[in-house]
Amino acid sequence: MGRFAEDMARLRDEIEVERSARQTLIADTREDVAGAAQAFMSDLKDSVQTLQADFRDAHASMVEAARADRVAFLDQLGGSVAELQRETVSLVNDLADERQAGRQAWRGAVAKSRVLPAQLRAKTK
After folding, report:
1. 101 vs 15, 19, 106, CA distance in Å?
2. CA-to-CA distance for 35 and 104, rounded, in angstroms?
3. Is residue 121 part of a domain?
4. Dihedrals φ, ψ of 102, to 5°?
5. Which domain holds residue 93?
6. Total structural domains within the chain
7. 104 three-class SS
8. Of residues 45, 63, 44, the one with CA closest to residue 55
9. Which of 13, 19, 79, 104 is most deeply buried (CB count within 10 A of its CB)?
């Protein structure tokens, strides 16, 4: 064979070797990328599951705290309402006594004892 034929054969062999190396590199790269993507997705899935579990735990804690706060508030509110009711009854009774005393003073009667409004109405009829 001539020099040109030998150079062409050597060039063809080099091209085949480089082509085979390129195909191997592409296949290896695809495997590496697929493996890395799978590992990334697995890690991401684990991270999301961990975050969701943490969010559920935090939400449950917030629910318990809110429920306890609400119960404490309602207990305090009930006590405040009961106290306001007692004060209102006391004020209404005091006003009734004042009104009764005013009526007696207007009529000229001196009150020796406390007369209840129901008893007073019965006497005035």
Report:
1. 123, 118, 8
2. 101
3. no
4. -65, -40
5. 3-115
6. 1
7. helix
8. 63
9. 104
- Asked whether residue 120 is assigned to any structural domain, the reply reads no
Each residue of 52-88: pLDDT tens digit? 999 999 999 999 999 999 999 999 999 999 999 999 9
What tokens does 113 get? 């004892």
> H or E element: which one contains 62?
helix 3-107
pLDDT, position 106: 87
CB 102 within 8 A of CB 117: no
Q: Residue 116: what pLDDT?
A: 56
pTM of the model: 0.48
Q: Distance between CA atoms of 91 and 95, rounded to whole angstroms?
A: 6
Q: Tokens for 89, please give them.
A: 């009854």
Is 35 inside any structural domain? yes
* CA separation for the pair 115, 112 (Å, rounded): 9
pLDDT band at 2 (very low <50, low <70, confident <90, very high): confident
* Cα angle value 81/86/88 (rounded, 5°): 90
